[in-house]
Amino acid sequence: MRKLLRFLPFHFCVFLIFGIYVQLYLEIWRFDFYIFFSIHFLFLLILGLVHHKKIRTFLTFGYFFFVGISSVFINDDANYSNYFDRFSNNDSRVVLKVDKVLKPSSFHQKYQVKVIEVDHQKTRGLALLNIAKDSFQKTLKVDELILVNSTFSEINSPLNPHQFDYQKYLKNQGIRQQIFIGKSDFLRLGFGSRTLKGWAEQFRNFVQFSLNTHDFKVDEIVVMNALLLGERKEISKELLTDYSNAGAIHILAVSGLHVGIILILLVKIFSFLTYFKNGKIVQTILILIILWMFAFIAGLSASVVRAVTMFSFLAIGQQFGSKRINLFSLFSSLFILLIFNPLFLFDFGFQLSYLAVLGIITMQQKVYHFFRFKSKIIDFFWQISSVSIAAQIGVLPLSLYYFHQFPGLFFLSNMVIIPVLGFVLMMGIVVSFLSICKILPPFLADLYGFIISLMNGFVNWISNQEAFLWKDISLSFWLLLASYVLIFFGVRFLQNTSTKKMLLFLGSIVVLQSVILFEKFEKHQTKEFIVFHKTKQAVIGFRNSNTIEIHHNVDSLQQLNSVINPYKIGENVEVSFKKMISNVYMFENQPILIIDSLGVYQLENLKNSVVILQNSPKINLERMITAIQPKIIIADGSNFKSYINRWKITSQKMKIPFYYTGEKGAFRMKN
Question: Which CATH class is domain 527-670?
Fold first, then answer.
């Protein structure tokens, strides 16, 4: 760890990441490319002229901070003069090229597309394409061109507190606009220039077709597609939930785990080459070729390319014969990937992969040596378990932050699945190859399907042990950072139990406790009134300290899960529910009047009220404003949009603030 802290590429990574975050969230660089390249040239010139070691080091750190800013600026299509949004209007004829086939929603087929032409003007930029579902319509293919005549629209931000921010997620993928079209509102133009990704997709479809000619069960074939081809779109929600609850969801995504297992197997297979002259170099070249062939078969998705790049560096680093080189290789691959695509930094899979590998490299040996077993069989399984524990420590805070649950039996599921996963992968590759060649024996297909079914059955059994699944865990951003500070200094203390490192470790515990106490104090001081947005329903909440009371008019509480659960977890509060039976409420001496479909508002002592319009009341808004003189008028999702538009115009005319939750999100009023 000490050598890592003195490893310059590690510091370059830190300043590069800092620059990426600064540019993405603050957008401090808004100048043109001429100034941009001039500053790069000036930096490099000064670095070439300065010979003082410390000054040159600090200038290099500053340069890589600027490189982080530059990489975000260069990779943002919106900064270019031919960005498609500069040319599109309501009647534009747009040519789209399919870049990626996404998982469909309930009503739409979804694609990531490149906007290559608008009204005969060559353009650039990514967009989200939504096509109304049609059971008779064939799915578009990667690299296919289509012509549409439609309008781009902004991607909606979440309308309730702590809901998943799909707008932010897509922005981090380089997508800011989307387009909706009907099933017959586009014209197929054939294929454009074929890309490597397109050829990979075509080969993957060919493998899938060959496997589908055999009598595999539905859950068997979808797991095979996920394990071998990185194709998860057809996996049922129930099967995904089983793997998630069992702590084995990473098995269904071709990522670092799969590539790492393949790397280990390839090292053992080609180990005989090390006995020959230059054998290690030949071994490494063969391993790299096979790894990238696997990436091609898996469709060259971003997660696969990242994983293969990371393990390619690790494979090269192993030639030096030092365990410390693994850390250097890890950060070198991180540095290279972020230079070429800084938005990888905000991908959940990217973050989890690197933290898992970092955990294994830095902690696995320490965990493994906690116990000693004379039995080789027990020792083998303990070694596998120590890898799983080290990886879990590395990703645990981030997993809790994103997914809010912890599978208590992850230890058992990984101890059983990971030792046989290498065999399952290699057998799957053999089965796929024989299937492509049309010489797959039925007994071998049946055997492989039986093994996959056994794995699915085991995962389902683990998933059903709900007593060991902890859900709705709340972890704030600051608690996330404090947790990793604790892990960092804890690892350093375990590696060298000096007094100084013990004090730093104890200090990190104090920091974690301080964050917990501060958040607890802040939570107990909070009082809040919320009007949630729920289509065709009325939902309001009164929060006092660590509890919130929800008043609603829905028939089933399950309808409120998507609205209330994110708030419950994000704010770490207890929730109670009540049917909405009153039209008048009070929050911190502020009267709140609800005008529902009955249209009753002529009540005493309600001047300057907060007025909430629900269920499309048929009232004369001007007369109501004159009678009550409300402080603000709020319309929730239970109202007709035609009514809302009319109320908005009237409120502006009467100079009364108007708030529609369907546009601005949930209304929140705090003490």
Answer: alpha beta
